[in-house]
Each structure stands twice: as structure tokens, then as C-alpha cells.
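We emphasize that the prediction below concerns an isolated chain of 210 residues; any contacts that depend on oligomerization or on bound cofactors are therefore not represented. The input was used exactly as deposited, without trimming of termini.
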Amino acid sequence: MSRRPARAEHPRDTGDQAPGDQVLTLPNLISFGRLLGVPLFLYLFLVARADAAAVVVLAIGGTTDWVDGWIARRLRQVSRLGELLDPLADRLYILATLLAFTAREIVPWQFTAALLAREALLLGSLAVLRRHGYGPPPVHYVGKTATFLLLAAFPVLLLATEWSQAATATAAIGWGLAWWGLVLYWVAGAMYVVQASRLVRAARGPGAAA
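Result of the prediction step, given as a C-alpha cell string:
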């Protein structure tokens, strides 16, 4: 059986367009900007303690999650680099925000541990796939939805600590988004593991042990 390179876990939704080798495209510049927002958020949140500015950075980083992919399809600028940058930016935003929020006691460590455990599960699955000559399985939209919910929840939770007049309502909205995002994140992880196990079984052949 020939090995088929799989796409990244959370690439842009590219439709029928084949990714090219472009580097300096508008979608890629947006993704680079999102990556630069990660250290900027950490500085504003942990060093400068400028929480209002940190909320703005988080909100921009979260709302532009789908923008680069939409522009890539509209302008026909889908690229292999973009398929790597987009999920990388998402992962870094989620991990950086979780660790920073845990340090400031905005989210409990149990919530952070649950998300980190899911990432560890995927890393283990990816290692198994690579031993059999495969990259990650194709993306599914449960993971995209989970990422969107988490990136939307974080600025709302941070806003709840700053907006005392509506802290209860804002926190309820933020935690609603966060818990739904966590659940879907694990559902997406389970789907990922199922996809990975199917690829491994196919690589071993019908006579191999499961």
C-alpha cells in the first residue's frame, strides 16, 4: 500500500484548491501577524498587566482564526505554508492563554490540565502515525469549532475580571464557551485517534494484529 501524506490537523478549509508553494501572500501575512500576537499578549498580560490591551489582542487573534482561510480561498492563495501557520497560531494562542490564565488564577489548573492532556494524546497518536510513514489525518470541523469556541471564551473570561458591573453574566458566557470548547476539543481528539488507528491498521495490512 502506498503511503498518502495527510494534511495538518487544523488546516485552512481550502475546498478543491490544491495548496501551492507561495510564501508572501495576504493569508500568510495574517497568520504571521497572529503568531506575533502571542508574545505580545503574554507581555501585556503577565509583565505590563495591561489587561484591557490584552483583551484586544486576544479578541483579534480569535476573530481572525477564520479570516486567513476565507481570504486564501477567495484570492486563490492557498499554500502549504499557510496550512502549517494557521493551526500553529491556533495552538500557540490556546496554550499561551491557558498557561497565562492559570498563572493569574483566572482558570483553574484542572481545566488547563484537561486541555494539555488532550494535546498529549494527539502528540502520542502523531508519533505512532509517523512510525508508519503517515502525517496527521485530514481535518474535521469538530476540531475547528472547538478551537473557535476556546479562542472566543478566553477574551470573555478576561473581560469578566475587568468589567465588574457585569462580571457574573460575562463570566457565565465565558465559561459556557470554554466548557463547550473543552468537550468538543476532546471529541475532536477522539475522532483523530480513530482516524489514526484506521491508518495504522491499513499500513499493517489485513493479516496484521490490531
